[in-house]
């Protein structure tokens, strides 16, 4: 197992910018060691970056992600972390289901408006065709 990772290795592996990684550092999400001007990230930092990116893909805020990550190392530990994660997943799922219902209603409305517009176009086309004969 690799002992340290450079900023270049991690930005390439996770397809993120150095600016993003430095932002995570400024937020206290990763804590690289320094060798002169070089930042050295531990396997734990690498895991945190992976968790941060997964959390962002799932729609969690950085504050929520940070809270879940920090809970792992303190009481109530992993149990509390998992409980919080499950609560956040349930809330996120409900939020997404609500958005899905809104989208479905909007799509139905669009279908109605489209159907009405097509019917009116057909009427106008028929009326115009009759008038030209």
TrEMBL record:
A Pfam family reported for this protein in Swiss-Prot or TrEMBL: MerR_1
GO MF, one annotated term: DNA binding
Keyword vocabulary terms for this entry: DNA-binding
Gene3D superfamilies, A to Z: 1.10.1660.10
SUPFAM superfamilies registered for this protein in UniProt: Putative DNA-binding domain
Domain HTH merR-type: 4-71
Organism superkingdom: Bacteria
Tagged with keyword tRNA-binding: no
Protein name: Mercuric resistance operon regulatory protein
């Amino acid at each position: 197992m690799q002992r340290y990772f450079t900023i270049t290795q991690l930005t390439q592996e996770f397809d993120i910018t150095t600016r993003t990684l430095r932002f995570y550092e400024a937020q206290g999400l990763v804590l690289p060691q320094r060798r002169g001007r070089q930042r050295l990230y531990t396997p734990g930092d690498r895991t945190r970056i992976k968790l941060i990116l997964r959390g962002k893909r799932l729609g969690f805020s950085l504050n929520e992600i940070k809270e879940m990550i920090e809970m792992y190392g303190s009481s109530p530990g992993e149990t509390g972390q998992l409980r919080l994660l499950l609560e956040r997943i349930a809330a996120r799922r409900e939020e997404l289901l609500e958005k899905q219902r809104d989208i479905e209603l909007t799509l139905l409305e669009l279908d109605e408006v489209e159907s009405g517009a097509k019917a009116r176009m057909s009427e106008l086309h028929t009326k115009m065709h009759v008038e030209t004969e």
